[in-house]
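User: Hi! Is it possible to get a structure for several chains at once, not just one? Here's what I have:
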Amino acid sequence: MLISDSKVPLYYQLVDILGKQIKENMKPHDRMLSEREICTKYNVSRTTVRLAMAELEKMGYIYKMHGKGTFVATLAENKQNLMESYSFTEHMKKLGKVPKTEVLSFEVIKVNDYLAKHMGLSGEENAIKIIRLRLADGIPMMVETSYLPFAKFSSLTEELVKKKPLYEIFKEEFSQVIKAADEEFSASIIPSREAHLLQVPTNSACLKLERTTYNTANQVIEFTFSIARADQFIYKVRHIR
Amino acid sequence: MLISDSKVPLYYQLVDILGKQIKENMKPHDRMLSEREICTKYNVSRTTVRLAMAELEKMGYIYKMHGKGTFVATLAENKQNLMESYSFTEHMKKLGKVPKTEVLSFEVIKVNDYLAKHMGLSGEENAIKIIRLRLADGIPMMVETSYLPFAKFSSLTEELVKKKPLYEIFKEEFSQVIKAADEEFSASIIPSREAHLLQVPTNSACLKLERTTYNTANQVIEFTFSIARADQFIYKVRHIR
DNA sequence: TTAATCAAGAGGTAGTAACCAGTTCAACAA
DNA sequence: TTGTTGAACTGGTTACTACCTCTTGATTAA
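Assistant: Yes, the chains can be modeled jointly so their relative placement is included. Here is the combined structure:
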């Protein structure tokens, strides 16, 4: 079942196979085969099995109990890839809504002190500033203002941003893999400009969100402010371990 | 430096030692010793070193680059234990504020359908309902309403809750270790009861927070609603991987 | 000078082996 | 009957070995 001379590691092939089994045939708290049983079934070492299981655990698919076994997590139901939680597009699809994005502006700016500090840039560098309106089922949900380091994304165009989700662009066009993200949540009364864009009364509450996204080399690849309408938008995050 | 016959595993002793070194003597992007160098320095196998490094990586202390080395993460500056982000007490201490908690009510209730569903309980079970007012430097910050499964915490008393942070009680009195948490954020106009408790005008915005906390066996050990005043409270979360 | 090559050293993957520490339950002894 | 014990599982820890891929920089060849 596993391909030894594949470019994709054995343990990762196992992650795929077991993950699929869990999603298709198992329910929360079902017991998995023991590590040693998986070894013989797939003819791999326990090292490989434990690597795969560690990965599944990090993804929230399974949990282990010393002396008892490994079990399917309740968390497995609605969570695949942690990265998806950062993505408005993926987030909305998961909720059964149709996401849509309008790019309101796209420009290259010189970073100010605040941006330089938060993005780990020198004050001389440039950043790409993108303002987007996000809609779900045609209802305006949030306004996002994103800053990307120009040095890493100099060839990025407005057309591309209009065509593809930002996180797909990161990965497919610039080989930037998201490794970590910091998010800050707060609430306030909605600013009038955003009230207009989101089509809500001027005294409404809104959810403010600030996100800093890091690549595998621990560099900031995105710094985003979002303002979301309070009556429509709920933001979900999951912590594991 | 490491103690072979200790009850605490070698790899975890290494986590402590390396973590301390990072916090005390290193800064972001500094290179760590290579895995093989650490092996000889502490006289352990590479297995052990890699286990420790994996742990440090999960904690956000370090990041690795294939072929180049292992480096101190920028994230290390302000983050130790992911669990601490759930804890109001720890969270506030980290911000240099003095946390205080007033227990407003403590009672055992029969769960309704909504609670039963969210806590994985049958409709017949009981829960402990605790309402707390959280203050930082004497300023009321948020009102938290928590539900704990009575079956797991039947011996919990109001006195204990007044004396100790809830998450310390979980760990020390009931051996419940937090493994994962789901959080949902939204914003709204503050309800009048909370407006009064938080001493803000009735038309203020507030941050609403719903948290479900799981133990290592993937059972819900806490379900909490929070209402926080928008002008004072910012909630930070970090995702890794 | 410039480009290709190669070796050293980094982390990544994989196997084997052995023993430790919880959990469970059946077999045995009081 | 009621304990207790102990074997047979579970995952957890540790060591050793070997080879892979990626990065870097020095050496070599064009």
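Chain B is about 30% helix and 35% strand. Chain B touches chain A through 48 residues (CB under 8 Å).

User: Great, thank you!
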